[in-house]
Write a structure and sequence with these properties.
- This is Two component transcriptional regulator, LuxR family.
- By secondary structure, the protein is an alpha/beta fold.
- The longest helix has 15 residues, at 191-205.
- The protein is 54% helix and 13% strand.
- Helix 10 (165-175) crosses helix 13 (210-219).
- The radius of gyration is 18 Å and the shape is globular.
- A 6-stranded parallel β-sheet has the order 2-1-3-4-5-6, with helices on both faces.
- Helix 7 (119-130) links the parallel strand 5 (111-114) and strand 6 (135-136).
- The protein starts with 6 loop residues before the first strand and ends with a helix.
- 35% of the residues are buried.
């Protein structure tokens, strides 16, 4: 990557260790051309830091305290619309769920990549988004094409809409057969927090156990 250009980046993720890892991977300015000018761990911090620094690109996690990545996009709509110096958003998430991808793209993000992406590919994606391109991990591009190819909006699932983004992610992993400890490891949360999310999901969906939850998720093709 040529270092003649510089792209100013803000990292938004609620896991400090992940932010540190990304910073180490892409923040070697002389090598990558990326200047990490700010970090945030929740929605309010993100909006404040982005407004103060006006970066070229924001690496945005989908699941954040305070309303998630979609809420950040909503509150930064004016910055995205700036004709001279637009702030562009690239979602960087552990989730590969269609509803997460489509949600942030509808919110205004220019792309969506998963956290399995390599450092060099992430740097390349940052530059491409800064140039106004749309960037997606290969499998995720299909979700967006399918969603926007139809002239009709996708049907609203009122049951699914009752769940928070984090609850949806926990639901999906549980439905795939993950144990609570495995879910906790995947999402960087405690087992107790996983248990709380599962209880909330069962209550909201009026289900009795994880077997019913798995059938519910499978019927909606969330697994």
């Amino acid at each position: 990557m040529s270092t003649e250009r510089r792209v100013r980046v803000v990292l938004v993720d609620d896991h400090r260790m992940f932010r540190t890892g990304v910073q180490a991977e892409i923040g070697e300015t002389e090598r990558t051309g990326v200047d990490v000018v700010g970090e945030a761990a929740d929605v309010d911090q993100a909006v404040s830091v982005i407004s103060a620094t006006r970066p070229g690109v924001v690496l945005l996690d989908v699941h954040l305290p305070g309303g998630g990545g979609v809420e950040v996009l909503k509150r930064c709509a004016g910055l995205m619309a700036d004709a001279e110096h637009p702030v562009r958003f690239l979602a960087l998430s552990v989730s590969d769920a269609a509803e997460d991808v489509i949600g942030v793209i509808r919110g205004g993000a220019r792309g969506y990549v998963t956290k399995t992406i390599t450092g060099p590919d992430l740097v390349s994606s940052v530059f491409r988004v800064a140039d106004g391109d749309a960037v997606f991990s290969p499998r995720l591009a299909g979700f967006v094409l399918d969603a926007f190819a139809s002239t009709d909006a996708p049907p609203v699932d009122e049951d699914l809409d009752r769940l928070t983004q984090r609850e949806r992610e926990v639901l999906r992993l549980i439905a795939r057969g993950y144990a609570y400890k495995e879910v906790a490891k995947q999402l960087y949360i405690s087992v107790k927090t996983v248990e709380s999310h599962v209880s909330a999901v069962l209550r909201k969906l009026q289900l009795s156990n994880r077997h019913e939850l798995t059938r519910w998720a499978t019927a909606r093709r969330l697994v």
